[in-house]
Design a protein that fits this description.
The chain is mainly alpha-helical. The protein is 67% helix and 0% strand.
């Protein structure tokens, strides 16, 4: 196996880990909805911190691939289209009375 293949293998392994963690975190998302994103129960980290840790692991493997010349650069047009689609359907859900709009929030979490 060459180094490009190794980088792809590591990325694949990380995707499998993220998939597994996301299945486990599905329960965390439910808890976050019920109790809040900053709730931690008897754990040392919050729901937000656990989700962020997995996201950063995935981004780290994307950077490893980039260092090998395998660039998975974001497609801004595709991202913008997805955001618009999510917003359109969220607004539709609000119109149907299925979603209650949130009050405007301050700065992003860090």
């Amino acid at each position: 196996m060459n180094e490009d293949q190794n980088a792809l293998l590591i990325f694949g392994e990380e995707l499998a880990e993220v998939a597994t963690e996301l299945l486990l975190l599905q329960n965390q998302v439910s808890k976050a909805i019920r109790f809040g994103i900053d709730e931690r129960r008897d754990l040392p980290t919050t729901n937000f911190e656990r989700i962020t840790a997995e996201w950063n692991d995935l981004l780290g493997t994307v950077e490893v691939l980039a260092s090998r010349g395998i660039n998975l650069k974001p497609d801004i047009a595709a991202i913008t289209a997805k955001i618009e689609k999510v917003e359109r359907y969220t607004n539709y859900s609000i119109e149907l009375g299925q979603v209650t709009p949130d009050a405007p929030q301050g700065e992003d979490r860090e």
